[in-house]
Amino acid sequence: MSQTPETTNARADFEPFIQIKDNYNFWYGSTQVLFDMNLDIPEKQVTAFIGPSGCGKSTLLRSINRMNDLIEGIHHTGDITIADQSIYDPSLEVISLRKRIGMVFQKYNPFPKSIYENIVFSLRIAGRNKKSELDEVVERSLRGAALWDEVKDRLHESALSMSGGQMQRLCIARAIANNPEVILMDEPCSALDPIATGKVEELIHELKKDYTIVIVTHNMQQAARVSDRTAFFYLGKLIEYDVTDNIFMKPSNEQTEAYVSGRFG
Amino acid sequence: MPKSQHSFTSIRPKGEALVWFTGMGLSVGILLIIGLLGIILKNGLSMFWPDTIYEVQLVEGSTAGPRNGQNFAGAIALERHKRLQEATNAGLTSEFQFFAGNKDAYGQMYHYVDADQIVTDATGEPLFTPASGILQLERIEFGDALGFPLEIQLADGTTITEPEALKAALFKTIEESNERLETYTKIEKKQIGRINSKMESIRLEQRALREELGEAAAETSPQIQELNEQQAALQAQYTELAAEARELRERRHQDSLLLRLATGEERRISFENITQAHFPNEMSLPGKVGFFLKQIWRFMSEAPREANTEGGIFPAIFGTFVMTLLMSLAVMPFGVVAAIYLREYATQGVIVRAVRISVNNLAGVPSIVYGVFGLGFFVYVLGGSIDELFFSHKLPTATFGTGGVLWASLTLALMTVPVVIVATEEALSAVPRGMREAALACGASKWQAIQRIVLPASAPGILTGLILAMARGAGEVAPLMLVGVVKLAPSLPLDGEFPFVHLDRKFMHLGFHIYDLAFQSPDSDAAKPMVFATTLLLIVLVIVLNLSAITIRNHLRKKYKGDTF
């Protein structure tokens, strides 16, 4: 099925959880940005998407929870499945799809509400308002995002009073509040300082015990540190996809090697 | 670089002239605002200050002033240069305007007197001596009276002439008289008013029954009999209350004060005509300040008298306030909902662009056009239909089919809705994209994201739009004249009578009140200070409304503040 020979060697050894298949193509209006993608993402591991700006890695990430639907004039061919269910299945509502997928954005974007309300937002919109349940979710999510000890005494203060790193971890806590199966991270550390970045990376290590994580990053060291598998994209095409160590130590494609060794991009 | 050129550029750096130019623009703006406020403040507030009353002595043979040449007493209202008409005596001379009051005696309250008609002192300046012991009376009719009190005659026959006792009795009698006024006004307005409205509903019931049963059968029916009995009982109550009120009125009428005017004659004034008295020339500074504050309060809290040239403007303040509030209640949801659809749901294309341009243009349509629309649509079509459907028993008297505070508010709401739509659209588009995406990524539907995240975050911007709308709406006069504003409204749009909010009532409005005072007043000299005082209050009201909206906005801003705004 795969058109790109480099990806085949990385396939057989695991059961795919998210599958991008049937030569997934994607257009913004008449501009094609993704070409013939086929990619299998394993469960409860960290998969990193790397590549130079404009290579389509963010577009692919945002296709997984159909955030691209917000843009007018998009269309695609091919399919994406999560646990063998197509995300484009007409019987599947996009809202219920997004409830199964948490997302963390490049720029931390807490709501202008209290810390507490930020986390329980996804529960409240689902009509779950029982206080004991919400309290429990807040504590679990904040502990999960390694933020509990720092903010447990000021849960009802504005989320905007926190530091940047704390806000990003709050966004992670918000993403895991609803117990999703997948967490998508779109350059989660690009707006953070090195110390905050370190904390978030540590957190990703913890989170992969429970969640399937897909992370887009510009920072190759970060991809090397946090991910189990890495996909390299260039000009809308998947160039190489393999276990992270292979991508960085012995890439089989010249472009990949040029990119990871810093010769372009 | 040559030295001269260097020094030249250091004196006048490039672009500096334009900086001065922009600064000048700002200064002109600030000067205009200060000038405007200053003039309104000075003219408006001077109305409340107790001016010194001077004795004015005219030169032999002068025919100036009241009564053609008699000496009189008055306050200086204006002093100005007068350009003489005669070419022979070309030059400038001064002219005074005096407030002499006593309209009933002199025919008018203000008199112009040339400076050369007034007896001068040794230095050649006009001689003014404060009139000692002069009393200024504020009256219900004929404006203020100025004069020296001679005696008080009470209803029980006592007369008081001794100056000190007279002074005490004067203030005491005014107080008693005002209490009596309050009592019988309460009886007439509240108790008799209640009886009248009951009688009116009985009359309508009788009419309905007569129509239902037929004239002949109705006379003998038990229902009509019962209604007749109720009517008789109410009539008896009415007679009793009316007698009580009449007695109080009579008593006020009989107490009287004898006043000698500065022009010599004596006048008897009944206490029913006096609302307040003060001795302007014997007041200390704190006394004057107290009087000043009291006058401001009375101006704000009392109803107008004498074709609006006397008394206060409370109904106009209240009318403006209620109308602006109703307008805001109507325009807010309407404008915000429209903007949400335009910005969030409508497919951005040619049609939406056309709608947006139309909305922007609507903001520029002259307000009188909205007044005509309000009259044609709200009053005639909507009001007429409501009357036919729900108030047919009162026809041909219109209830909603005539101008009223509801139609006025809706007309202004329509006029200001473009402002709210434009501001709301801007506020919505200023909400960071990331915040919407975060909400959607959490599994929110589009409406949930708008309702829970986008709207609260854009609330400050939406409120800014409302503030602009309120400022425009509160000051608008032209459309209101067509849809419900009146010179004098008998009752307020909000009172203690069921159903409390009377949306069908006509109302008074500060803006229209200014117009009315300035152009429709029988005595333009007397109306002038009222015009400025009312303008001042209109400005204050708009500022108060805006400040409260700004306070709410700042509160919201603090709540939602973040580095993304």
Automatic annotation (TrEMBL), chain A:
The keyword Transport applies. Gene3D superfamilies: P-loop containing nucleotide triphosphate hydrolases. Keywords: ATP-binding, Nucleotide-binding, Phosphate transport, Transport. One of its GO terms (molecular function) is ATP binding. Pfam families: ABC_tran. Residues 18-260 form the ABC transporter domain. It comes from the Bacteria. The keyword Protease does not apply. This is Phosphate ABC transporter ATP-binding protein PstB. It comes from Thalassobacterium maritimum.
Automatic annotation (TrEMBL), chain B:
Residues 317-549 form the ABC transmembrane type-1 domain. The chain crosses the membrane at residues 20-41, 313-342, 362-386, 406-428, 449-471, 530-552. The keyword Acetylation does not apply. It is found in: Cell membrane. It is a multi-pass membrane protein. Its main location: membrane. Pfam families: BPD_transp_1. Keywords: Cell membrane, Coiled coil, Membrane, Transmembrane, Transmembrane helix, Transport. Residues 199-251 form a coiled coil. The keyword Cell membrane applies. Belongs to the binding-protein-dependent transport system permease family. CysTW subfamily. This is Phosphate transport system permease protein PstA. It comes from Thalassobacterium sedimentorum.
